[in-house]
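Retro notes
What went well: the complex prediction finally ran end to end.
Inputs used:
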Amino acid sequence: MPALTPNATVGIIGGGQLGRMSAMAAARLGYRCHVLTPEPDSPAAQVSAACTLGDYEDPTALRRFAEAADVITFEFENVSAAGLELLASLRPVHPAPAVLRISQDRVLEKSFLADAGVPTAPWRAVEALPDLHAAVDALGLPAVLKTTRLGYDGKGQAVLRAREDIEPAWAALDPKPLILEGFVNYACEISVIVARGADGAGTVFDAMENRHRDGILDLTLAPARVAPGTATEAQRVAWRVADTLDLVGLLAVEMFVDLSGRVLVNEIAPRPHNSGHWTIDACPASQFELHVRAVAGLPLPPGRRHADAVMKNLVGPEEAALWPQVVATPGLIPHLYGKAEARPGRKMGHATRLFPLNGLPDDDGIRRALGCLAAP
Ligand code: AMP
């Protein structure tokens, strides 16, 4: 693939903060971005050269968007197969639509991971209520019932603890079909981000540790506080997933570390990931720069960090209201996404705190370093 020349246009599907930070990295590399989103004044469009306002399923909008771009990528995964095919018939799309289709559907994703020899929690596809009873018989309780599509930030799932939970959970979760996963008693949740180019070469960032609150990412610690062997295994697994997918672009792999230190993949996302935001401040080339480089066909520098880091999300009106303190706190590196309205659960921005390389403090030290952003 010849590298995209300076001033060429990268088309980004989706107008959120991941698109915004990708567009900022693209601008630094001399590219223009053109965003496709149905949302007026979106975070990504605010920092891009152009925007097509339109629905992800509207063939006229998709066509107009594609014709304005030299290469197409995405920060938003839920574009239909028909929409992706239309885009791919007009311009190169990276990562490939086939990769997106796998990541959009938890059953396809888990089947792919099994075929790639990558460990996950045990699981069963659930299309009807009798399947769910059979799946509970096979996997036991507790277990986690999830929609196969359109879940995010812990939405579209329910933990089944007793047989009485089965029918209410089946009734509550939509859209069907569903998937049942064995409950993983995990020691921690980690993720690894990989960038890979069309020539099959690439780079893997360090494993990072993710802490959630109310199903939403709250804190990321980089690097993850896990045994060196576990971190290396997580990186090996993430690269294997990217390589097996023949990925061109960026891929985040979310994993559980179980109580024996084993790494189990939870889900994959072929795009920049919230857990990689710290790379903007702690790495010479961030996840966003590597995303743009991979889809533009530029060389991929190593995803190496020059500092340890903690990233704190600013979620909802309460944390957005802390902004004056965040910008006034020395050492907190502020990032705001340009969203007009701070609804509950909405990611409004984040702040990164850097530490010396291999010098991440303990939880108390992190709390002190986060100052006004530390949880009570
Ligand atoms: P997901 O939408 O799959 O990322 O799941 C959201 C959160 O639910 C994860 O970050 C975990 O904290 C929890 N979770 C998901 N699947 C499982 C599982 N199989 N076992 C235990 N916890 C899970």
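What we learned: Residues 122-182 form a domain with the Dna Ligase; domain 1 fold (CATH 3.30.1490.20).
What to try next: split runs per interface for comparison.
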